[in-house]
Task: structure prediction
Amino acid sequence: MTQSVASAPVRTRERTERPRRRHSATQRRLNRAAYLFVAPFMIVFIVMLLMPLIYSGYLSLFTTQLVGGQTFAAFANYLRAFTDPDFLAGIGRMALFLVIQVPIMLALSLFFALALDSGRVRGSVALRLLIFLPFAVPGVVATLMWGYLYGNDFGPIAQTFRGIGLPAPDLLSAQNMLGSMMNIVTWAFVGYNMIIMYAALRSIPTELFEAAEIDGASQWRVAWNIKIPGIRPAIILTVIFSIIGTFQLFNEPSLLHNLAPNVIDNGYTPNYYAYNLAFTNQDVNYAAAIAFLLGLVIAIVSYVVQLSTQRREPRND
Result:
């Protein structure tokens, strides 16, 4: 009698331990499967992004000389960049590009997204595809196409002006080159940003619009007070993407350089400057420092924009 009573807790404990062991074994199998699914991304991330960043950071701390080879220079390349007129001019040029082009592009994208979402535009599907189509054109092809249109001697724009008796504008001159690049980027990316905003608009509950219309609100009132605040995260996302794309501008200056070599120098944009340093001047160490500083500028500007938008949002206490 005493033995049976004493063995009862042991059997109960064994019964509770077996499901736990089965559960832990199943969890381990699930964890292994999850790691296997994540492994391809992690391998590509480490090999294609993390390792090149580490190697670039390593290169930026050295200088290569004809006599003496590669020597440790600490932060000399970074200090050199702060006094480099070509790099600073490229940063200033892209800052002007950011202040002028990005608001115009995003304003057009928002206008088209609101117009398509209103439901009062005929052929909205075809129009949406037509606006998005320029983004499907490769950047190299788009730049070559617009370079042909801008040509002062052979371009159709100049020929049209001469045909009606007016002087042809030199769209590839030093005064107009930055504006010409702004036009190319705007033409290419309005549809991309429009799709992001339009998708965010479609996720807003329609009950809000119906209630506003019952109260007598106009379409502009609904757009300003409901739609635009409702897609603020999407707008911030497009702003950050546009900031990154602005400072990474490369295709336009590298291809238009052949048409206007006296206007676009090797440091017209910071990204183009880093490319020429590495592959034309063979100064890989300084190019790595320029690339790291460019990434730092992009991170700072993006953080400032995101922080300023967060401060403007109303707090729900």
